[in-house]
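Per your request, structure below.
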């Protein structure tokens, strides 16, 4: 993990343990914190990290370039995607930003890594963030392997996709408590369900696919 506490900007920084990936995550600025919350509850994300690495490359005219990315993630389809977040999509059109990211994107492609340009303003979806926060507040709710087995059995019996309410009923222990445990299970990728809007009794719950790929560990 790269933790650099010498940033010259005045944005906020944070570091704490993330149960999704099993170790600490360091973020800087509001948008990284928001995206970290989204990735923590995103069923399509297997692994992620911020301040993932610095890459260096040499341009055609012999200049040495380098870039430190905001973060990277592995999705369930096995694709490694690094990302850069700007407050608004228009920042990506600035010549200096566009040039260095285009060059960095080509350098990443040589390692079979995609680059996502994240529009920070698009992350400010209050409906989604309310749902994300609703899941995150249950991140430390305890559950047992028996509870996980009950959830998995309900999903299997439903053919691979079961309504959220039915899975909670199969877990037992009271509907609200079971729903809280399911949020904790999602954060630890025991089960999957979408959190891009309100989670209801009809929200589809699945068993997650897991990718064998891990984030690349090179650079500084």
């Amino acid at each position: 993990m790269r933790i650099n506490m010498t940033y010259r900007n005045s944005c906020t920084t944070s570091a704490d343990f993330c149960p999704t990936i099993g170790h600490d995550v360091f973020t800087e600025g509001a948008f990284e914190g928001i995206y970290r919350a989204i990735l923590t509850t995103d069923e399509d994300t297997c692994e992620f990290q911020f301040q993932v690495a610095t890459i260096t490359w040499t341009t055609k005219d012999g200049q040495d370039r380098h870039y430190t990315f905001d973060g990277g993630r592995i999705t369930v389809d096995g694709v490694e995607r690094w990302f850069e977040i700007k407050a608004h999509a228009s920042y990506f059109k600035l010549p200096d930003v566009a040039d260095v990211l285009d060059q960095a994107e080509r350098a990443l492609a040589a390692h079979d890594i995609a680059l996502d340009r994240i529009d920070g303003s698009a992350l400010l979806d209050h409906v989604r963030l309310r749902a994300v926060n609703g899941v995150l507040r249950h991140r430390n709710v305890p559950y047992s392997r028996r509870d996980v087995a009950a959830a998995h059995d309900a999903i299997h019996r439903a053919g691979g996709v079961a309504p959220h309410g039915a899975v909670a009923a199969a877990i037992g222990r009271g509907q609200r408590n079971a729903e809280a445990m399911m949020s904790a299970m999602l954060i630890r990728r025991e089960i999957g369900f979408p959190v891009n809007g309100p989670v209801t009794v009809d929200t589809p719950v699945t068993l997650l696919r897991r990718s064998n790929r891990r984030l690349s560990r090179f650079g500084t």
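The longest helix spans residues 95-109.

Regards,
D.
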